[in-house]
Amino acid sequence: VQVVRVGVPALERWLGWAAGAAAVLLAVLGLVVAPTDAVQGPAQRLMYVHVPAAWAAYLAFVVVLVSSVAYLVRRDLRWDRRAQAAAEVGVALTALTLVLGALWGRAVWGTWWTWDARVVTTSVLLLLYTGYLAVRGLSDDDHTSARRSAVVGIVAFVDVPVVHFSVLWWRTLHQPPTVLGAEAGSPPLDAQMGLALAAGVLAFTLGAGWVLARRLRQLSAAAQPAVPPAATSGPPIVVAPRGSAR
Amino acid sequence: MSGWTAVVLGYAVTVALWAGLAWWSGRRSSG
Fold first, then answer.
1. Is there a contact between B25 and A45 if contact means CB atoms under 8 Å apart?
2. CA nearest A190: which of A27, A52, A21, A47?
3. Torsions phi, psi for A223 (to 5 deg)
4. Interface pTM (ipTM) of the complex?
5. Is the Cβ of B8 closer than 8 Å to some Cβ of chain A?
6. Is the confidence at residue A238, as pLDDT, over 90?
7. pTM of the model
8. Residue B31 scores a pLDDT above 50
9. A83 and chain B: CB distance < 8 Å anywhere?
10. Alpha helices for chain A (secondary structure H)
């Protein structure tokens, strides 16, 4: 039996190590170095994982959007696989964002769930992309499935800016942006808290890229027809196409 | 629930999710 070893691409390996290193940095900065918040107490430390999870989920959904448009233009199934892998990672991270938000909410708002604009629009986001993954399974034909899911992948993205701006558009319980789009005059983020948040964003971005690369390699391998063992030794077997035999 | 309990649970859930994603994206295709 001949075993063919397929190496892990260098970029993927690099992403894995870099994500791991950033995660260690995040744990040290977020749990030890960053000072305890004067108002919220230790629960605020959830920010260093909650915000990066949401950020990485947004990023994954941007990849779904771009890949969906690219599929519709090029009709190349590689773009469809990119959209699928990104949607899967995005759904996992959106679910994590909601769970972390519920824990944080329980600690500082006194409730696991509230009909807050940010919480509701994020839940809708999770439903939309779970629906996207469900649509992928509706057809056995690869291109039909890719076309339908690309349309859903583009339409679903409309909710991403709605989630982001929900805290500004509606009077709601969730706190407004701390970094991007923070209001003028709002107190600046403490430098050490900022570093912990940056480490979190880095760790989640690299981690999402790593999982995406691995999943993509897995999906591509599944899409390739298996190479028969005879093809690796002995004379090549030439198979005439059907109808060509005389 | 105390703040630290929420933090410990939150970080534990985060580690578990990433471990799950790493396992899931590294699975060998079964068929």
1. no
2. A47
3. -80, -20
4. 0.94
5. no
6. no
7. 0.88
8. no
9. no
10. 10-28, 47-74, 77-108, 117-136, 142-156, 159-169, 191-223
